[in-house]
Amino acid sequence: MQIQVLGPVQVCGNGRTLDVGPRQQRHVLAALAADVGRAVTTEMLMDRVWEQVPPGARRTLHAHITRIRRLLEGAAPAGTPPTVVRRSGGYVLDVDPDRIDVHRMRRLVGQARVARCGDVERAALLREAVELWRGDPLGGLTGSWAARTRERWRREYLDTVVAWAHTEVRFGDPGAVIATLRELTGEHPLVESLAAALMQALYAAGGPAEALEHYATVRRHLADELGVDPGPDLRAMHQAILRGELDPLRDPAAATRPGAGAPVIPRQLPADVPGFTGRAGHLAELDALLTRRSGAAQTAVVISAVSGTAGVGKTALAVHWAHLVAREFPDGQLYVNLRGFDPDRRMMAPVDAVRGFLDALGVPPGRVPAALDAQVALYRSLLADKRVLVVLDNARDAEQVRPLLPATPTALAVVTSRNQLTPLLAVDGARPLILDILSPAEARDLLTYRLGAQRIAAEPDVVRQIIAACARLPLALSIAAARAQQSSFPLATLAGELSEAGRQLDALDAGDPVSQVRAVFSWSVTALSPPAARLFRLLGLHPGPDIGTPAAASLAGHPVPETRRLLGELTRANLLAEPVPGRYTCHDLLRAYAAELGHSAESEHDRLGAIRRVLDHYTHTAHAADRLLHPTRDPIPVPLIPPATGASPADPTDHQQAMAWLSTEYPVLVAVVRYAAETGSDAHAWQLAWALNTFLDRRGQWHDQAAAWQGALHAAGRLPDPARAFARRRLAYADTQLGRHDAAHTHLQHALDLYTRAGDLSGQAFTHYNLGYLLQRQDRYDQALDHSQQALALHRAAGHRPGQGHALNSVGWCAAQLGDHAQALTACEQALVLFEEVGDGHGQASTLDSLGYAHHHLGHHAQAVDCFRRALSLLRDLGHRYNVADVLDRLGETHQAAGDPAAARTVWTEALDILTDLDHPDAEAVRVKLKDLDQVAVPATEPG
Q1: Domain 174-262: assigned CATH number
Q2: From CA 317, how far away is CA 302, in angstroms rounded?
Q3: Cβ-based burial of 857 (10 A; exposed 0-12, middle 13-18, buried ≥19)
Q4: CDD domains under this entry (predicted)?
Q5: Low pLDDT (below 70) residues in the chain
Q6: Domain 655-936 superfamily per CATH
């Protein structure tokens, strides 16, 4: 099975070309294939496919992906079906990259570049790569993403052809490439590297006159189209051919060197990074700068500011890209390491960097002016109207960089820094490029290059552990690979060191400061102000995956405005990332380093105070939010105490604000519950689980609900009995939703014993209600009815009106399932009155759903539809996603029974979208109902 994108998008399998479907579906496949093995978010896919995303695009995209998955599974070899899998808020095309022509082309080119083989083998690899090209890439696809990608792949292809041509000439077979080069120079008459390759091949084949004629053609095109002369390399080649001195065995870009008196052309780039992997998207963004530089309206130098945390590979990316595009800058490439974060604080002064550039440009020492301004003026004069690439590596700030920027629009500057050089963006028009950690596939590729495919394939699970322990940070992965290269030990030995608590950073040490992760991180922290450095240390104590500004303020014990300023300093230093406004995170190795500093540099008193403040912040805010979501809920059984001094809990004022805060914070809150339980903050652990319960239930996030209550149950072992009973009851509910019925029953029996011994009637009633619900999920409605009736009697004895409503609704539901729909209506109508009196919206919605079900089975379709719609209105307001899907499912059955299949399809489709997003097992049953509708529907005529 092969996926082809270097031409029209198509799939070949089982000896034939398969129908990929309409243009939009081909576009989706291409958008996934471009990033094979990596998650492409749903939003990114929609942006790639549609210039303006239409309503319903998400549903359309899902349908396309479903059909693509079926197509690929049908085309795959038996036993190894490729697939499109849902992951990280998007989709991954999980196939061998070698089955996609563009990735196979890149693999062959990379293999030819680093292979230790002769020209025969290298030429064969490059020839195979060239032959994968089938015409215009992404043929027939439109839009800006397709255009950008097509142009990038075209440039890669031209570079590959040039490399192949040079290899064939050196091998002694120039005739093998002349026809291809003639065709391409006709299509791309302004690409000087192609012209040089053709001139070299013609000369080597005994045709110097043809080579000179082609030079004249290229010169004419450049003058007519761009108003410029050929670059110095092409001019020098022309002169060498005239003199009969051209060496056809040398690289065209270096075939000749300027003679005496010619301007010096600097080639200062460091060596390219061996086995550079990944970063396709970032390379494409840098490629786009070339187009911007050559734009007709461009009047200023183009600048790219590449920023990212320590060890993320900024220099590697900049140098690798600079080598890829060096031919675009025939007047030279300048490079300097500005040492902005040197451990000895030996940051290079701009005056020293400019002097170095002047020396590289051939200025004699006696002609270098004394003053910096004069040196900068001379430097910029020498670069005027020249096509020069300037790489300013490891800059500290914009002030260090500005004197080194060229002033000509023909030049391009790439600046790398650990800091976000915001002033360069604001004042100098720089284009930001923020570098993050590698994708899992890119990290694996790096290790494969360093350690060999055989060693990686031998321990795949261990390799994943190493990648995770290194946080997908290129520096850490390189150090880990270097250590593995020096021994024949199994990779599991290294993985064990990396996973050992407290030793992760010790294991990532190759022997000197530059190859020691801890030391490299320390250079960034040393550059911080003392308050920002303290906040960084305290953030290492925070248990969640990210943190908001108010929580960080509580952690530090500072006011929010001051904390916001410090977080900004950490973000500009790339010690934190701000993926969404007001929320901050960092990768695991930086978090481990911050925690290490927190424990070594902060006193125990200060650490405990910071942890207490942030736990109070989360607990009090979550409790306030829950009261807005469920105002009729009984008071919390483990009362809160006032927050510590310096803690600043948020104060949501309405249902919408409460839902927004919980939606943002719940992954952190679940982690905080676990942390609090493990560290002995028992009351916080229990109170947070209680405060999260309503939200997690309404969102259908029962795995998180179970995790929270598991932590709370652990903490409740040191709290009074009612806390343990409540925790077991709520954990049983989550287990019931997850299908873990035996565990749920065990928890409920323990809870019932505790409530009975305590004489707590309401607790016993709610436990019987939960037992009834568990039995309903097992289709044991006669026993469920008995527990529901016991719950009703106990709630009446305790005078608990909301509890009576829930028990009456459960009695009615069980009666309906047992076929007594009249009794169901009676019990549920009583429940609805109770819920309306106490203002319990969720109870009303649940009861209306039961009434709708009973009316449906009595044939009262209009009444059933009305009940279901009223229930949906309440549930949507409450944000109870799973219950919305559940009611939509039953509403669809009523529509179908009433003879309205179109309405049934609409509501079932919405239900399926919700259940699919929740990854809920009920989705399959709804999918079957929709499929059955398709089978009985009259086929529609396909347009066009």
Answers
A1: 1.25.40.10
A2: 18
A3: middle
A4: BTAD, trans_reg_C
A5: 77-82, 88-89, 113-119, 247-263, 292-300, 343-346, 488, 501-503, 507, 509-516, 936-944
A6: Tetratricopeptide repeat domain (1.25.40.10)
